């Protein structure tokens, strides 16, 4: 794997984790939204990540052959956001007969957003983002040291 491939993998991870954090923030911001443009309550969104297949073997085959072969060739691709899907769990009924979106029984359908879960998802995305930055800086340092060998 070349240095540029490693930079691309880190960059794809940074992009994916940024999207996860954006979606968690959107969920938190809409945790009280009872009516969207479609007229329904807001539904929690989730990010689906997928491995990008490069021109080389998959990550699984790399792991299987890691102890047998040194200097594996091929460009592993990284990760990408495959989709952003809505959580289909039930909405949360809350008794509030004075709310404009209340039904005839006085219940309002609130979004299925759990504040604790969104906070944890945001923290997880932040930690993963930081890990990708650390890997990126380590690769950059290795490239600098490799250039210093030629001096």
Q: Can you walk me through this structure?
A:
- The protein has helices at residues 3-29, 59-65, 115-149; strands at 45-52, 78-86, 92-95, 107-110.
- The protein has 151 residues and is α+β, with helices and mostly antiparallel strands.
- The strands form two sheets. It has a two-stranded antiparallel ribbon. A two-stranded antiparallel ribbon has the order 3-4.
- α1 packs antiparallel against α3 (115-149).
- The chain starts with a helix and ends with a helix.
Topology summary:
Elements: H1 3-29, E1 45-52, H2 59-65, E2 78-86, E3 92-95, E4 107-110, H3 115-149
Antiparallel strand pairs: 1-2, 3-4
Instruction: Output the helix-strand order.
Output: HEHEEEH
Q: Which secondary-structure class do the elements indicate? A: alpha+beta
The fraction of residues in strands falls at 15-25%
Helix content: 40-55%
**Main sheet: strand order:** 1-2
Q: What is the count of DSSP helices, taking H or I runs of 4+ residues?
A: 3
Described by the principal axes of the CA atoms, the overall outline is elongated
Largest sheet: 2 strands, antiparallel
Distance between the ends: 24 Å
Radius of gyration computed on alpha carbons: 22 Å
Oligomer: single chain
* Strands, total number: 4
What are the low-pLDDT stretches, counting only 5+ consecutive residues below 50? 69-74
